[in-house]
Amino acid sequence: MQGDEVLYEVRSGTARLTLNREASRNSLDAGTIGLMDAALDSALADDTVRAVCITGIGDRVFCSGADLGSALAGGDPSEGPRRYALLLRRILDFPKPVVARVNGHCMGGGLGLMLACDLAFAREGIRIGTPEVKVGLFPMMVAPLLLRAVPRQRAMEMMLTGEPVDAVEAQRIGLVSRVVPSAEFDTTVDSVLAAICANAPVAIRMGRQAIREVEGGKPGTLLELMSGKLLDLLQTEDAAEGLTAFLEKRPPKWKGR
């Protein structure tokens, strides 16, 4: 259901959204984001769905973030950042609990996708990071979610160096709820989802709404601001050079403009 690049199924009260772009490291482009949004529509309309689980196909990559190839393909440069920001905000505000099943490496925009969820379970051995600075960009829309999840100094180190952390460190600093051995991963995620689905849906819906109000709704508002900041950055020569160098598999030659 939904489309070849986003698989959708409902099982035991949980709607499972699976990024199905293994050849592209489960990256996100405008079409994939549209399919995810449509899948969320289906989950919202289905009264049998009590929770949503977001994951990626295979066991190597949960989501590698933006499809950098499509970013250079022309068209409106604001479309990708705008749609990505809206997707994150929708997950943040979704009326039903959303759990990230982080089955593989999680990078860039994939980290934003993970952090927008209520809970994130990581398989042992994976790495999580924000490598955007290595290609002349910056994790603008990820930053508000990262800064609310981990201490500022640690968040800044990740964003300024572009270096990833392993799953154990990710749990220690609060990026993920739990790290689970591979042999126990699916059983653990399924048991948590079953526990959520067994609880009162009205209490969960109202409780999550109250928590968003306590948090002030800042992440959602900031996502729109930061998508504009990313668009400004995409107009620079360094951003164009970073993306081109990445696709050509060579070191970038920064110009500082």
SSE string, helix = H, strand = E?
EEEHEEHHEEHEEHHEHEHHHH
Please, what is the average pLDDT? 89
Uncertain runs: none
Q: Give me the count of strands.
A: 11
- In CATH, what is the homologous superfamily? 2-enoyl-CoA Hydratase, Chain A, domain 1
Instruction: Give the termini separation.
Output: 45 Å
Q: Trace the largest sheet across and list its strands.
A: 1-2-3-4-6-8-11
Please give a handful of descriptors for the protein shown.
about 260 residues, alpha/beta, 2-enoyl-CoA Hydratase, Chain A, domain 1, seven-stranded mixed sheet, four-stranded mixed sheet, 11 strands, about 50% helix, globular
Architecture overview:
By secondary structure, this protein is α/β, with parallel strands linked by helices. The chain has one domain: Alpha-Beta Complex (2-enoyl-CoA Hydratase, Chain A, domain 1). The protein contains eleven helices and eleven strands. It has a seven-stranded mixed beta sheet with strand order 1-2-3-4-6-8-11, sandwiched between helices. Strand 3 (14-19), helix 1 and strand 4 form a beta-alpha-beta unit. The longest helix has 17 residues, at 218-234. The termini are far apart. The mean pLDDT is 89.
